[in-house]
Automatic annotation (TrEMBL):
Cleaved signal peptide residues: 1-22
Database matches in Pfam families: Lumazine_bd_2 (PF12893)
Xref: InterPro entries: FrzH/put_lumazine-bd, NTF2-like_dom_sf
Protein name according to UniProt: Nuclear transport factor 2 family protein
Keywords: Signal
Source organism: Longimicrobium terrae
Amino acid sequence: MRIRTLIAAAFAALACALPATAQTTPEQEVRAVVDRMFNGMRAGDSTAVRAVFHPQARLQSVVARGDSVAVMTEPVDGFVQAVGAPHEQVWDERISNVEIRVDGEMATAWMNYAFHLGDRFSHCGVNAFQFVRTARGWQVVQIIDTRRRQCGTAAI
């Protein structure tokens, strides 16, 4: 009986001494992709930015002018090239109020943003990212955003 108690105590001590393996949730994985893209933008790292996109991804912006609303589509490759091109100011897209929803192999991330060129505020709005989980992990298949100059509390 004493040996069983010692063995049980040894296993308990061993279990406490081993570090717990942290598992990430799909929501955390999606958030990591969002962060990689914006960190890549700030660094001017087109390779890092390109890596988050699915080959069939697209970028869109909702543009409201007066009473009309249009949707502009920009090629991902053009955006990636612009990120990697030399520019004097850091492209700093500051995000807040990030909401992530996951359903199996699909996810959405909705967030407020304020875009700054260096220290100068440029514009703000909302980003809606769509993701799909592939063999390479979560990839962005679409980003659609709104853009405006007046932001209220959304300007971070």
